[in-house]
Sequence to fold (143 residues):
Amino acid sequence: MIDVVEIQNILPHRYPFLLVDRILEFEPGQRIVGIKNVTINEEFFQGHFPGKPVMPGVLIVEAMAQVGGVLLLREIEDRDSKLVYFMGIDGARFRKPVVPGDQIRFEVEILKRKSSTCKLQGKAFVDGALVAEAVILSAMVYR
Fold:
């Protein structure tokens, strides 16, 4: 398991934009499983939507990408000099709303990797039900 302290040593994201709480499984160069605990205290719930809080789909995909970023950066020795950027998002689908009290389980695997680019397949689950999925294209760049 990778806790949030180690995640912060890998990713540059910080509150309120760090959207990964823990990594449960890690297979270097292959796949990763991470979680995000969704609470009513999240800043985005103030406006999305008053009286009917729903986690924005773009933030679900961002959290998925951050889990993928841990997969790509954890084993790199000079990771402090690198960032992982979005290049594209394909086939994003949102199947069920994510609401306060949910725990999202992200399963991300590498589909294709070239020198500095990578294609990842990500899926998000709440209570075993698929709530979102996307193919994420990313590039590793120097800071």
Remarks:
- The two ends are 27 Å apart (CA to CA).
- Residues 4-142 form a domain with the Thiol Ester Dehydrase; Chain A fold (CATH 3.10.129.10).
